[in-house]
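Re: Re: token formats

Sure, here are both.
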Amino acid sequence: MKLLLDSCVWRLAKSELTYASHDVVWCGDWKKDPGDEEILSHASTAQRILVILDKDFGELAILSGKTHCGILRLVNFSARHQAKACLHALKRHAEELLSGAIVTVEPGRVRIRPPDLSGNELSLPLDQEAFQEDAESLPENDNDR
């Protein structure tokens, strides 16, 4: 899968995701930060799912109607667990992401905002059995580093 990691995502997540056979670009490797709108535009043009930590990109996509190829937001994961959370979300929600959904993953919950204009969001508890392998190593919150 083609991914663009925002510079806020831990730099070593790129290596872990690349090792898992994903095509990964990390904004932190760029000479300068072009800003959120340009990063979102680049992800869309390059047909990459944008992986983020904050709400700014989702707000640009929803409120400003900026096009994108899927946004994956990781919430409250320590840096060292971001790649595992991303891999789990990609495995479980690839279809939604590839269709242009905004998927928010946090410990114990996944929220999916489909690419339609209805504004409805689907909130799902994590499938604990499916997540068991990763869950043992994932912290409950970011303070658990």
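Second one below.
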Amino acid sequence: MCSGCNEIVDARDAIKCSACEKVDCSKCLKKWHQTKLLPLRMNESEDTRSCMHCRHTPYVPAKLTRIEKSTLDNLEFKCPLCSEDVKYENTRYHTLFGCKMRPKKTVCCPANCGVEGIID
């Protein structure tokens, strides 16, 4: 789960800390770093950015490996609305279009990371 938006991380948009290997959405992480560094001091650089989990400085991002992406995409979840088993890679489509019980209204993540969700 992403610490920024509290959603399951999209494997296509995931980034991890090379020190602690915790995974977050790249958009949420970027927003957290921008917020953390404002206002920038004259002698401050991007090297002062730290991991939001382990606080390792400097923050060195790493992409998920092919195996990590594959593992995430193959996880199955039970839809909380229709109880259908859905693979993670199909969750977004199922939530927005495929669920028989889906509400008619979707909302964007309040952290503005681009993730859309459903509301009752």
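The longest strand covers residues 14-17. Helices lie at 26-36, 66-74, 91-98.
- S.
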